[in-house]
Structure formats: structure tokens, C-alpha cells
Amino acid sequence: MEGLQVEVHQDAPIPLAAAFGCAPGEVLALVGPSGSGKTTLLRTIAGTYRPRAGRVVVNGETWLDTGARMERPCHRRAVGMVFQSYALFPHLTALQNITAALGHLRRRECAARARELLALVHLSGLENRKPCALSGGQQQRVAVARALAREPKVLLLDEPFSAVDKATRQRLYREIAELRQGLNMPVILVTHDIEEATLLADRLVVLHRGRSLQIGPPEEVILRPATAEVARLLDLRNVFAGVVSGHLPERKLTLLDWEGRQIEVPFNPQWPVGARVTWVVPDGFVVLHRRDRPSRGEHENPIAGTIETVLTIGHTAHVTLRPEHDARFPIHFSVPAHVARRNRISPGVAATVSLLTEAIHLMPAAPQRQE
Amino acid sequence: MDWTALRLSLHLSILTVLFLLPIGIAAGRLLAFRSFPGRGLVQAIVTLPLVLPPTVLGYYLLVAFGKASPVGRFWQAAFDHQLVFTFEGLLVASVIINLPFAIQPMQRGFETIPPQIREAAACCGMSPWQALLKVELPLAWPGILTAMVLSFAHTMGEFGVVLMVGGSIPGETRTIAIAIYDRVQAFDGAAAAEMSALLLSLALVAIALTFTVARRAGRHFG
After folding, report:
1. Which domain holds residue A118?
2. Considering the entire predicted model, what is its pTM?
3. What ipTM describes this predicted complex?
4. CA distance A166 to B115
5. Domain membership flag for residue B222
6. B109-168 residues touching A, CB cutoff 8 A
7. Does B221 touch chain A if contact means CB atoms closer than 8 Å?
8. Residue A3 CB: number of other CB atoms within 10 A?
9. Tell me: the pLDDT tens digits for A176-190?
10. In what order do the strands lie in the sheet with A316-323?
11. End of a domain among A229, A264, A298?
12. How many domains, in total, are found in chain A?
């Protein structure tokens, strides 16, 4: 069996219940808030943490099988790990840090291979710098080169971008994306940043309190969260409760009652009429109507209301609208700042938005948290 | 100047440091990295010699090493002479009373190594031994050196325990600290002053060396 398979179950000291696989060349992101068990799962794979019950299999080799009382120590697992704060050896130079992970090579091959790896991460010329004389981004690259030095069968990245500034992070994203073209081992990325996970990963595992809640490609997880809990963890804000009020198969629509307002959603007969559901519309699918050409009702799911807040960050205005029909549930959306200006969007003015039918997703009713 | 006593003191100090080096590394590392039942008790026991009056410690060692004790009987059986009032007895006592001076700085030295650095060593494929040699010892060496200097200086100057366990047998157990006392008793002020000055300068050098090392150590993680 190619790739990595992980299964972990324990109730204490940290509750964990997760099972996932990662194919060679695939980048799998473990996402979740701090304390959700992401790093513990990573350490379980590396062998620096032993769960009460679990299995880790890499390319058919068993690294951990608590059922069979089998555990391979960390230094005999071919893992490459990039630590959150890099954990470079402070007393060694950049080159020596990499050589430290080349114990499997003969001594005279080491230096050449270490130089090759430094070149791969664009650090040629900095061989003799100690970590304290390297910038955050350079340290991160040494850490990546050191992780690759061991010719790992699994590459583990523990929030590798959290300690660098935003500009450096953007550059490192591109470099990692380039680098992974040449890698054919499973890559596990731990992050609490959904955007970062979406950018870099092929699939996400959404974790909360040690449980994996949903596994899938980023766009699927974000557009179709399995539960209201996942939606909340992904920071989707337009999450509301509703009741299925009818099906219109001929128009490929299902109708939803949202606090007295009818919402059209994609045809979904699995939900019987009368079923209580949680529904979500990503804020990118909330469209502002032009205020100089008021809607006459021909738009999808028009919702009229009053603008409550407008927060402009850079070129984007983040807007909340209190719907007329029920002001308890504000709708969040973003528009380019110039659109907000041209439409004279400001707190207190009346406005109408459309909730695009195609993007509305239904989930089982949650024990409700509503804003 | 009592050259025999000085030579004996140097000999005793060097051997004490050599014995304490592996003991201190093992114990300091264990106390720094592992939590185990009774850890607090172990910590307390290795710190005890620091606060006990040397004569009290010396008394208990004398009793423990004596002919009536299991240790004393074992020694007599194994080496055909007794442990008290011999250089070997002095050495064993010296190692015991220096445990806190050796273990504590080494423990502090190991404690400065972040857990992630040790995990990184394992993730680089280093066995625990390789990690100790290539990563832990180089990072903990200021603490180790401090421990060695302190133990050396402390052994050079130890008086109470040496007198209790070793007596004052020239060439066997009369260290320089005992010799100073001896000279003062004999109203030989010049010799006492000479030897005292020597111990004073040794202590000064030891302290200066420790501080320099401690300052340099701050650089890695600064």
C-alpha cells in the first residue's frame, strides 16, 4: 500500500479520534483551532508522541500499531519534520544543520548533498551562517532542506509559516508549491489558517477537539461543510436555521422557510418537507444589488434590509446587512471598496442583496448557535 | 608550602571531577528531561549536601563507611583494607558531597534545550546517543563546564568532611585545606598565608571562568 495511513483513538489525556490517508505527492492539511489535536497527530506520525491506541502505516511499513504492541522509535522512522519555530540546531551552521540529517550517507557524500539541498531552497552562499544570523524566512528554508535531507517517506509541516511576516509567507507559499512538484511523498501540513490550507493542500481534514469532522478537497469542504460545526470552524458566517417547505423538481429547486422568508436552494429531495436544517451561503455568493436600479424581484433570493456595518480593509469592504424580515440574523458579504463607494453603502442605508441559489448548502439542523 | 598536600588536593579534585562528569550528565539529563515518580525526592537528596553542615555530612559518611557498615565490610572484603582514613574513602566522600555542585548546573544546562530541538534531533535520524553527543552536550556544555569548575574548586577547599572521613594523614588524606589548618595550629603563619592565597586565587579564577561561560552561553538562544 502506497502512502500514509493514520488511525488514532484515545480518550485521555488529549481526546483523539481521527483516521485519514495521504497518497504519495498529495498535500493533506490538518486544520482546526489551537488545541484541536493537529500537532499531536503530527507528532504521532513522527513518533515523538505515543497515543493509547493507533496505527501508522507508511508505504506498507508499520511504524506504530498499539494493538500489536509495535512501535518504531522516531529516529528510525524516515520522516522529515519542519517545526513551528523551525528547531534548527543553534550551535550548527546552516550547512551543518542539513548534514546532521544526512547520517544515512557516507561522510564524503554529505557535504555535496547538503550544498545541493541548500541550493534547492535558494540559500547558496549562506552555508556558514548560524541560525541566529538568518532571517525567519531563511531559517524556515534551512528547516525545509533539513527535513528533505533524510529522504523522508513522509514530510510533516507543523505551522511552518506562522513565524514569518506576511510578505515572506507569500513568497514561501510559492516556493513550497514549486518544491512539491518534485516531491513524491505524502505531505501533511498542520495549520489553523484555512486560507493557507486552501492554497497549498489537495485535501483538508477539519479537526475539532481531536476529532476529524470532515475530509475532502478544500473547495468541497468550504462550499459543502458536513455540519454546522464544520461551517463554524471554517469561519463561514452566513449560517442560519430553516425549515424545508417544499420541492419543485421541475425547476430543480427546493424551497426553504427562513424566519418567514422563502429561500430557493438547489433541488435536494433527501430533506423531507418540514425537516429542520442548517443552511449556509458563503459570503462570496451574496451579491449586492445596484442601489440606483432597485430590484423588481427578478433576482434570486432577494433580501432587503439595512446596512449595519461597513469595514474597509485595503480594497475590500466587509459589509453586514440586517434583513427587513428578521433583524436578528445579519448577512455578511464583501464587495470591492469602489463598489461600496459608488453605491454609497454606509451604515443605516437601505440595500438589497441576492443569495445565489447554486451556492446555498443544507446541513443537518445543529443544536443552534445563531448570531 | 606543603607540596605533598597540594599534589594530593589536585589529585583528589581531578579524580572527583572525572567521576562526577558521567554521573552528573546522566542525573542532570534525567532530572531535566524526564518526569517520574519520586523526582522531587531525588532532587531533594542531591541538593541535601549543599545545606548540611560538612561535619554532619562527614559524620554520617564516617558511620556509613566504617567497619560496622555494609559498605565498609564490602570494601574490606573486596580490597583488603578499610575505606575510612584512606584516599579512596576521601574520593568517595568527595564525589558524594559534590553531587549538588555537579548535577544542578548540568541539569540547568540540559533544561535550556527546547524540547523541539531534541525532537528535531530524533527526526533527523539521530539515535539517543548521537543526539546526546551532537546536540545535547554541545548545547548544555556551559552548564557542564560550570559544574566541573565548581566541583573542582569546592573539592580543593573542602575541610569538614575531609577531616571527618580522612583525618590528616600526610600523603594519604591531608589535603591543602587541612594543611592550612595544621600550619595555623603550629603558628606557621607564613606557610598558612601562602597556601590560603593559592586557594583564594584558584577560587577567583574558577568563579571568573564560570561567569564568562554563563555569559557566552546566552548567545545561542538570544
Report:
1. 4-229
2. 0.83
3. 0.82
4. 27
5. no
6. 114, 116-117, 119-128, 130-131, 134-135, 138-139
7. yes
8. 19
9. 888 888 888 999 999
10. A286-288, A350-355, A302-313, A316-323, A331-336
11. A229
12. 2
